[in-house]
Amino acid sequence: MPASRFDVPDPVRAALNAVRPPRPFHVDTYLARVEAFRGNPLHLHEDDLPVDVCGMWRFENGVDHIHVPRGTTGSQRRQIVAHEVGHMLMADPSRKFGHGLRDEEDALARLSALMPDLDPARLAMYRARTNYADEEEGWAELYGTFAVAGLFPDDTTPQGRIARIQSALDGM
Fold first, then answer.
1. Residue 155, class by beta-carbon neighbours within 10 Å (0-12 exposed, 13-18 middle, 19+ buried)?
2. pLDDT of 79 strictly over 90
3. Residue 53 and residue 2: Cα distance in Å, rounded?
4. Residue 76: helix, strand or coil by DSSP?
């Protein structure tokens, strides 16, 4: 049977089931759940990030850090936070450094200035993704969208929003 356009990739499904985002979505409650699941302290930072970095997760000395651009509010902030958590939950366990930075020298210099306590050689280990053609980036965005909207792929009850959407579009 061919896959439907609403099939959710296994890593996204597993991440959504590992840490159920609260309904309605609340950042502090959500991050407390993620922190408990991962067993690491988790800190949310507002930073003056370079213009080409809209969010970043890093793992440093047993602590998860999510960085969002200063002044980001509302649904954009929630989406960035959930997107970065998606990276945390779906990352290859052997990758200990997070993601979010390009290997370009100017971006590294700007971020080194922002985080002077972080070794520039370590900053170079972060990976940047700037579009959703990258499979992992697309998964993180899908995860973030589902998490913030309170949609779960396994909701099959008639009242489940995803079931209603699937049902409506399957008839097209």
1. middle
2. yes
3. 37
4. helix
Q: How far is residue 10 CA from its own chain's centroid?
A: 16
- Categorise residue 15: left if φ over 0, alpha if ψ from -120 to 50, beta otherwise: alpha
**In whole angstroms, what is the distance from residue 83 CA to residue 138 CA?**
10
The tokens of 84 are what?
């970065």
Rank 49-58, 64-73, 110-119, 134-143 by mean pLDDT and report only the highest: 64-73
Type of residue at 27: V
- The pLDDT score that the predictor gives to residue 158 is 46
The Cα–Cα gap between 25 and 9 comes to 22
Strand ranges (E), the chain: 42-47, 56-60, 63-69
Average pLDDT score over residue span 100-118: 56
Q: In what order do the strands lie in the sheet with 63-69?
A: 42-47, 63-69, 56-60
pTM for the model: 0.71
Residue 70 has what pLDDT? 92
Q: Would you state the structure tokens that stand for residue 134, as one six-digit string? A: 């990258």
Tokens 């970065």 -> residue:
84
